[in-house]
Amino acid sequence: SARAARRRVLLLDYDGTLRELTQRPRDARPTPELRDLLRQLAAIPDTEVHVISGRDRDTLGAWLGELPLSLCAEHGLAWRGPGDARWTARDDLDMRWLPRAEEILRAVELEVDDSELELKPRGLAWHYRRVDPDYGEWRARELLLHLAEQLASEPVEVLSGRKVVELRPAGVSKGNYVRTLDLDDAFVLAIGDDRTDFDTYAALGERAVTVHVGETGERNRFWVDSPREVRDLLRELLRA
Question: Among 239, 234, 192, 237, which residue's Cα sits nearest to residue 33?
Fold first, then answer.
């Protein structure tokens, strides 16, 4: 159990997990209550808190940077430990696909009202949270097919998330970040809400408690309904 373990490691996604999804991604900044909860969790003796997000490093740093947390940004492309001023980032990536992909997504952003293109240092995300749901889902499926066709031979991964289509360099994942951590003899709790978080669960195997926001249809995984329930669960850990 968490209480009996010699140490604890918490691996937490941000959007849709710690914090509700918002109509505009930039509006999902952490509330004072959430910041306080993360600070208290990190203050439990022998406990590490990692926020592992698809967010770009500048946003993640601005929102959570002065808390005593480890931060992993852009699906594992950049990371920094508690108190670190600088990010460590992978610089061995082939980005030749980026201009072509941006051209495709820019055209879709112009075509689909209320959709939004997010540029990251090493990736792209097309958000359609404010688009009519039926049309948005149909357009996202069309876009996924088009990108798969146009970028078939490129070193890029195309991901379908919750109201977002994302592109990231091949070989980058939250799971690869998790594999670098020392988790021996720790109680490990991982919580996420979309397909990118399955990379985290897969990297952990059987030695972690994994909790997913929303039902996945997969067995042997705990699930909760909402970020509010995630925060309640984390408060239970504090009480324990």
Answer: 234
Exactly one of 13, 15, 197, 199 is catalytic; which is it?
A: 13
- In terms of C-beta density within 10 A (0-12 exposed, 13-18 middle, 19 or more buried), how is residue 80 classed? buried
- Report helix, strand or coil for 63: helix
Q: Is 13 a catalytic residue?
A: yes
Q: What is the DSSP string of 81-95?
A: -TT-SS-EE------
- Per the CB < 8 A criterion, the answer to whether 161 and 53 are in contact is no
pLDDT (average), residues 36-54: 97
Per-residue pLDDT tens for 92-127?
Answer: 999 999 999 999 999 999 999 999 999 999 999 999
Burial category of 83 from C-beta neighbours within 10 Å (exposed 0-12, middle 13-18, buried 19 and up)? exposed
* Global pTM value: 0.94
Contacts of residues 91-98 at CB distance under 8 Å and 24 or more positions apart, as own/partner, are 93/122, 93/155, 93/169, 93/171, 93/172, 94/155, 94/169, 94/170, 95/122, 95/169, 96/154, 96/155, 97/151, 97/154, 97/155, 97/156, 97/167, 98/124
